[in-house]
Amino acid sequence: MARRSNNFGRDPGLQARMLLTMFLLGLVYAVLVAVLVAAGAGALTIVFIAAALFLVQFFTSDKIALFSMGAREVSPAEAPRLHAIIERLCVQANLPKPRVAVAQTPMPNAFAVGRSPKNATVCATTGLLDLLEPPELEAVLGHELTHVQNRDVMVMTIASFFASIASFIVQSGFWFGGAFDSRDNNNNGPGFAVVILVSAVVYMVSFLLLQALSRYREFAADRGSAIITGRPSALISALMKISGTMQMIPQRDLRSASSELAAFYIFPPKAKASVVNLFSTHPTLEARIAALQRFEAQLQGTGR
Questions:
Q1: I need a surface site. Which of 19, 235, 268, 269 has the fewest CB within 10 A?
Q2: What local confidence, expressed as pLDDT, does residue 259 receive?
Q3: What is the pLDDT of residue 193?
Q4: Rounded distance, CA 71 to CA 63, Å?
């Protein structure tokens, strides 16, 4: 089988949005650091703590995600069908084969983690494996491999780290406030209320940027799956089955799904909880189906 080029499945619009998101996040966090320094926090201390936390998250976020889902890596002997599909898709997309994991949960879902294609892991739940037919499962795994190809998992991990820092400052406001207030008595710098206010604004900006990027990357991964498999209809069928089954999953099982992973699933566990699309991690099911149907029409048109 012929191998595709390394740019296969890449979405220029997604690449541009990832760069823009990281640039804007850099700007807002430069403001946050400036306010912290002005409030009396040591610049070197801020940099050291932030760098240490960043390295921990960057190199361990995939392991933490898999652990939180109770997922474990499986061998070809343990999951031959899953490995066979991923191997075939990787050949088509010219990707190194990722590690393969399975999570024991009735919730039908899948996600990809890892900071690069060489150390990525694709995880499917037992609920997904039991629910989907082979072409539908192939479409879902093609979606996850497109995330790996686009490296958007790494960008989301980095971006979410910055949002976590701002959230931590807001939640720890009184602890920071005492330290800043004692310094304010001497240097008239901004008080802890200003720091908390700026941190809250930074968190909200980060949150909205992340949600917007997350929604677009799902469209890009849907399209990538359609290109790799050549069957947009299979992904449409899979998404409809996942959505219908998700509504029948007990709430306790949905709650057990890590909220930090919501943006990484192919389908959000609590899709109906997002009343306003601006705050959702995924496009609506209707929007995704419409986009796939348009792309399928394009594919059929080029074949005539």
A1: 19
A2: 59
A3: 72
A4: 10
pLDDT the model gives residue 277: 66
Of 290, 287, 243, 288, the closest CA to residue 269 belongs to: 243
pLDDT in tens, 218-265: 999 999 999 999 999 999 999 999 999 988 877 666 666 655 678 889
Per-residue tokens: 82: 């899953």
pLDDT at residue 173 greater than cutoff 80: no
SS3 268: coil
Q: What percent of the chain stands above pLDDT 70?
A: 75
What are the respective helix, strand and coil percentages of the chain, to the nearest 5? 70, 5, 25
Q: Write down the mean pLDDT value for the chain.
A: 80
269 in a domain, yes or no?
A: yes
Range of the domain at 131: 12-302
> What is the model's pTM?
0.82
Interstrand relation of 110-113 and 71-73 (parallel, antiparallel or unpaired): unpaired
Q: Count of domains in the chain?
A: 1
Q: Is residue 296 annotated as part of the catalytic site, yes or no?
A: no
Within 150-278, strands assigned E span none
Residue 6 lies in a domain: no
- Is residue 96 a part of any domain in this protein? yes
CA dihedral 20, 211, 120, 221 (to 10 degrees): -90
Q: Where are the beta strands (DSSP E) in 74-204?
A: 99-103, 110-113, 121-125
Choosing from 144, 218, 260, 286, the catalytic residue is 144
- Sign of the Cα torsion 300, 108, 147, 93 reads negative
